[in-house]
Design brief:
Length: 294
């Protein structure tokens, strides 16, 4: 929650309790100056004001409601008002939290970095990508090329050998890649239906590939350019898995997430989501689908 909303909420909280205390003080025939001073000092500054601190002898002592003149009935009125204040504070806090969460979700839904593309969420028909060239003649969305190149440079400075082996793909390229995989399985004796099902676990169906989005890149080690699980054992890949989030990139298809992503473990496929989101995804051990659903 940002400071603007926090300060606004604290002020509402402080003056709400102050008003109720004045009513309680009026009912008890006592002064409420000490209570107002305490509220401004403690509540507005953001110190914890648990419900127990808003009830009983401590509050009555601070508010001057137990100075020996107040009657039990007046203290009962004060307790009732204070309990009402607690309930109102909770309502305000819950409403503020709901509003903040709604705003967060709306911002995420509108953020191009978090556009979800998978089997259930194909690339929008009107989606346009502006690509630029990067290493080895590959293309990538121009909005994330700087972070990609900086990440690769830093990986090399650390003594590793990362290499781009795939980046942006247009629709026809993805169609050809998908069909070639089907033909490869068929040549090994699988039926078309079997070959297509196996291909769909390894290669995104055209229209559902992040490579068409322009925000995905496949990275391997020069020493081992095979796209299999052995890739995770290379020095380059170990460094990337540990550090890619610092540059806004995440390992898109982590191990043990196949049932959620619909794609096999790919220790070479990275997706740009921006540094803010990448950090949270990495620290929580989520895949993109889980992050967007939380």
């Amino acid at each position: 929650m940002n400071s603007h909303y926090t300060n606004g909420q604290d002020n509402i909280r402080a003056w709400l309790i102050a008003a109720l205390l004045m009513l309680a003080g009026a009912a008890a025939g006592t002064r409420v100056g000490p209570a107002l001073q305490w509220l401004q000092t403690v509540v507005i500054q953001g110190e914890n004001t648990a419900e127990t601190e808003l009830r009983g002898e401590r509050v009555h002592r601070i508010a001057g409601l137990t100075g020996g003149q107040a009657q039990v009935s007046s203290r009962g009125v004060a307790d009732t008002l204070l309990q009402a204040a607690v309930g109102e504070i909770r309502r305000i806090e819950e409403e503020t939290a709901r509003n903040e969460e709604q705003k967060r979700r709306e911002a995420m839904a509108a953020d191009w970095r978090l556009l979800l593309v998978n089997k259930e969420h194909p690339l929008p028909e009107d989606y346009e990508v502006r690509v630029t060239y990067t290493e080895l003649g590959y293309q990538i969305d121009e909005r994330c090329v700087d972070e990609l190149e900086q990440m690769l440079q830093d990986c090399r400075k650390a003594g590793h050998d990362p290499k781009i082996c795939s980046a942006y793909r247009d629709r026809q390229y993805q169609i050809n890649l998908f069909n070639n995989s089907i033909w490869n399985y068929q040549s090994r004796g699988y039926s078309y239906e079997e070959a297509r099902a196996l291909t769909a676990e390894e290669v995104a169906v055209p229209g559902t590939s992040e490579h068409e989005l322009g925000l995905a890149v496949d990275l391997v080690s020069y020493a081992n350019q095979r796209l299999n699980e052995e890739q995770e054992n290379t020095g380059a890949q170990k460094w990337l898995m540990e550090n890619s989030w610092k540059y806004g990139w995440i390992l898109r298809y982590p191990t043990a997430k196949k049932d959620i992503t619909g794609i096999i473990y790919e220790p070479w496929h990275y997706r740009y989501v921006g540094r803010e989101y990448a950090r949270e995804i990495y620290e929580k051990g989520l895949c993109l689908e889980e992050f967007l659903a939380q």
